[in-house]
Amino acid sequence: MKKTVFSAMRPTGKLHLGHLVGALRNWLELQEKYPCIFAIVDWHALMGEYEQSQEISENVLDMAIDWIACGIDPNKTVLFVQSHVPEHLELHMILACLTPLGWLERNPTYKEQLREITTRDLQTYGFLGYPVLQAADILLYKANTVPIGEDQLPHIELTREIARRFNHVYKTDFFPDCEALLTQTPRLLGVDGRKMSKSYQNAINLAASAEEIKKKTGGMFTDPKRIKLSDPGHPQECNVYSYYNVFAASKARDVYEWCTKAQKGCTECKAILSNTLVDQLAGIREKRAILAQNKARVKEILDAGRKRAQKIAQETMREVREIVFGKG
Ligand code: SF4
Q: Ligand 1 within 6 A of 238 CB?
């Protein structure tokens, strides 16, 4: 069967280097090989951020700008906003009717998020149903390939279970089995060595200016055992070195040398990294600035994407209604 790739991101804030290496670089490769559908899933954002909902529309536009600036090509790829295609909610409703409650309550991500996110009340009906909406997002386009990291495997498994349950209940083979496309992405920590996260303010945003990049890299944690310039360092224990490996692999050998032989200090090492990042993000920043000046054009692109997505979604829902309710 021909692969159709579906992937999505929640518009919850500015995109950063973690998004670039964790998803966007992979998407750029995928859009060259397969028909791809990439969605900005604002209803998913609302499920977690319903108290800050005013920020979501701005984040949606920002995310579209970031994606296009990074090279997601709206001519090749269907790029759209989830809430612009109401069929997502209709399919979500139908799937919700047949999804056993226990499947959702047992979902490890749900349990983990309830435990870890203490600043928001996530004990809601909507949040429990997050994986059902996720299944609807994927199945609406009969996407059979979903690029994910290992931690998201339970969600894809749930989508498969929900699709099979639909097929079983209505004695059909309408929904295909979707497969996870496991992607090995480099693990990139925040500049403070903790998990990269908006709430820790430890990420370098794609839209960051040269000054901001310099400031963030200058403050990066390094090998704690290297106290003086003359102390040989341990690059494997240094977050700066891991950034070199991800963003300037050709320089990593030199870094290893100058660090272990104490030939350069950490300040200089970080300054070189900073210049590399400034150079690498320059193209994205320039395209971003142009798009940010022309939001009407970005909205047009999203509307064109909406039309392409909705054409597929409407056809799926016409068939789903027929399967569920009969021809009438
Ligand atoms: Fe890290 Fe570079 Fe300092 Fe070595 S020289 S500890 S790699 S910042």
A: yes
